[in-house]
Amino acid sequence: MSNLLEEYKAYYKVRAEKYANNPKYINTYQAEKDLSDAMQSCQTLEEFKDKIGNKNEMCAIALVKDESKIEYDFYNKYNEKIRQLSSQRILSKIDDFNNSQDLTTFVVEEINKNSIEIAMDEANTQLLLDWHLLENYEIYQKAVVPDNYKASMLETTEENKQALIRNVNDLENNNDSWQSNWKINPNIALEERFIDKFPYKKDHVKEQTEKYAKLINR
Questions:
Q1: CB of 65 closer than 8 Å to CB of 91
Q2: The whole model's pTM is what?
Q3: Could you count the other beta carbons within 10 Å of the beta carbon of residue 36?
């Protein structure tokens, strides 16, 4: 029995040392150390069941807290203000939990909620998908052609405009199922987390976004 007790003590000591001197896992280390200290103080294995209390639960909670902080700091660094919402909300309430099962339920709910928020946010970059339609609209609108082709040019111009509007309407109707009364905001695509996704100079993206917003009346 004594050998088994020493093995348990070594196990919990190693668990705690895994997070030692890691500034990103301060809470986890403290929780694991508390658990290990309880184990180290035991003279028999039977003592541990009386000393463990909810220390295992607190280790799990501390790990979620530290990893949520890591995630929050990462997204905050890149101004990903929507993607950081789940970790932000988790951090704001995690100290209210004292068992991992309830925390797990809460975390899953927040992750699912944030997934929808992210999808709604990214939907504002519809212009990235419809860039060619806007370009075609401008090309046909500005085309210098003989008189007998002008009517055809105007018709094609209008077709591209209606395609832009139709795509926005379809997008809004689809997203309404996830977020009631969701409406596209083209200017969100100009924010830091999105504008670099466009393979064009920022000034040109801003110029085209203004035209796009007017065409789709948003």
A1: yes
A2: 0.89
A3: 21
209 — phi, psi (to 5°)? -65, -40
Is the separation of the CB atoms in 84 and 72 below 8 Å?
yes
Q: How far apart are CA 216 and CA 203, in angstroms?
A: 20
- What sign for the dihedral angle of Cα 101, 107, 110, 112? negative
CB contact set of 48 (below 8 Å; sequence gap of 6+): 8, 38, 39, 42
127: nearest Cα among 162, 96, 167, 92: 167
- Give per-residue pLDDT as tens, 173-182: 999 999 999 9
- Candidates 16, 18, 53; CA nearest to 37 is 16
List the structure tokens of 39: 């184990």
Compute CA distances 89 → 64, 72, 105, whole Å: 12, 10, 14
Q: What is the pLDDT of residues 88-97, one digit of tens each?
A: 999 999 999 9
